[in-house]
Design brief:
Number of helices: 7
Helix content: over 70%
Structural class: mainly alpha
Number of strands: 0
Largest sheet: none
Radius of gyration: 18 Å
Strand content: under 5%
Order of helices and strands: HHHHHHH
Distance between the termini: 33 Å
Shape: globular
């Protein structure tokens, strides 16, 4: 029988911090695009994160695998890294040239909409239930309420449709990579973040 997780005030604080950090990213990208090209912006984000995570790993000195099962191929980790960082960062940076930051933020809320059916079919024991579906619907409605009408405002750009497709493509990359990560053997999450 599944036991309910212990949700504390610290848990809610972590969710709030994550929301502010992740949400501010879209505004930051929009401002940075005034002086950088999309691909240099993505490379800069990945490069800075790589240096920071390498420094953390130097001080932690942890092994990647927490079990003796080292059968997961490095090629798989590289593929997940491309899907979880490199490709969506480039798609978002490129797409945000043609869409509002509000649309980019709402498109990231679509990650959960994509993960639910993927997990249902690809991860044993992760079937969609009415409770999960209701939780998603309430969360997505909350995102729309917070962002408001700006979420679907048009920029008037002739290739805005491609910008929107790029933002949704980034969301799809995040969804697929999160499902693939669930299939990895047990790994230290900070080490895994360093590799990816």
């Amino acid at each position: 029988m599944n036991q309910s997780p212990d949700i504390t005030a610290k848990s809610w604080g972590m969710i709030a911090a994550l929301g502010m950090i992740w949400g501010a990213t879209f505004l930051g990208i929009e401002l940075a695009l005034k002086g950088l090209t999309p691909f240099w912006l993505a490379a800069g984000r990945i490069g800075m994160a790589s240096v920071l995570m390498a420094l953390i790993q130097i001080f932690r000195r942890r092994s990647l695998m927490l079990t003796s099962d080292s059968s997961w191929p490095w090629g798989g980790l590289i593929f997940i890294g491309i899907l979880s960082s490199a490709l969506p960062f480039m798609l978002l940076s490129w797409g945000q040239q043609f869409v509002t930051s509000g649309f980019a933020g709402v498109s990231m809320a679509a990650v959960a909409l994509m993960v639910l059916p993927l997990a249902h079919f690809l991860i044993p024991g992760e079937q969609m239930t009415w409770r999960k579906s209701l939780g998603f619907a309430v969360g997505f409605a909350g995102v729309l309420l917070l962002i408001g009408g700006q979420a679907f405002e048009s920029t008037g750009n002739s290739i805005e449709i491609y910008g929107r497709a790029a933002c949704l493509g980034a969301a799809a990359c995040y969804a697929v990579s999160s499902v693939l990560m669930r299939k990895l053997p047990t790994m230290d999450p900070i080490v895994l973040a360093s590799v990816l």
